[in-house]
Specification:
The strands form 2 sheets. This protein has a 7-stranded parallel β-sheet with strand order 3-2-1-4-5-6-7, sandwiched between helices. Strands 10-9-8-11-12-13 form a 6-stranded parallel β-sheet, with helices on both faces. Helix 3 packs across helix 4 and helix 4 packs across helix 5. The protein starts with a strand and ends in a 5-residue tail after the last helix. It contains 13 helices and 13 strands.
Amino acid sequence: MKLTYVHMAPVPSFAANAVQVARMCSAFAAAGAEVVLVQPAGEGGNADEIAAQYGLKTRFAARSALAPGMPGRELVFGALAALLHAARRGGVIYARSVSVGAAAAALGQRIVLEMHVPASGLRPRLVRRLERVLASPRFVMLVVISGSLKEDYERRYPALRGRILVAHDGAAPVGDVAPTALEGAFRVGYVGHLYPGKGMEIIAPLARLCPEATFHIVGGAPPDLGIWQERLASLSNVVFHGHVPHHETKNYIAAMDAVLAPYLRVVHGVGGGGGNLAAWMSPLKIFEYMAAGKPIVSSDLPVLREVLRDGETALLREPEDMEGWAAALVQLAGSEEMRARIGVAARADFEAHYSWDKRARSILDAIEDCLKPVCKTEAC
């Protein structure tokens, strides 16, 4: 299959979406697709830079299209990317942007749209564009990252039933690691951004309740990192490591005794803005922790229960229950057997369901199923 992945944001970057796009392009290519990533000109890396940043084993082509700084920027970029794809004669455009999808469909290109937010979270003009995409004969299917999102789209657009695939996010198998030397007798880790709702609001009081544990915070853009370093400067058991290249985070996770996914009930994305993601998200860190076979203490949110099972693959605690979080860490610190049991179960679930390769294969299979009637008469 010829697959052109059109992405508005630069890859590589600090953002989690860049990790997902790079990994999925590589996984699509490993599954046999002919993959080209198209990014805005001057904003992303070339194929070699992307592969080096994310430690990719299977590479893919990378091209660029103009995205002028003007109203309708995404539509212009999407149209130019669609023209690049048209030269490939067949296949599909895969995008996470409604505007890119609208431009591609208008130019007669088949479009697969991946959505991480509900239609209700879009501005009115984007809702109108989305509805044009969904009504287009060139629309192939919708990919969403959680069952809650699938239910939301089916309620709003009943005609989509049978054309929505739930594909939770994933991670890469850990492979060889060189654990980073980390201080502390019981090392508790967090890997990810420090945006509002991502979890520092839980980690800060938890570190005070558990002085015997050392909390290692890996990641965070400089402004957010500076804020939390200042707020927690008095705590000797919190260590900030800052941003590290994504392919090196596995070495930090390998050195941790327990890991945290401490989401609040309101979670914001890049820059701390936008709508609440807590009902729809599929956090990369969950799957990276699972791949490493680490015992997870996570917020007990419905969308996370789609992946994690309390007492089996993680310990789930209400975001407001600080005593419960502290008790969970005490339990894990006191039982190596419990840590191993939960970690092994989490890794087994990951290997069965949540690798990038499995995600890519399931999406490609679904696309091929949707295209079978079309491919009898057209080049695919």
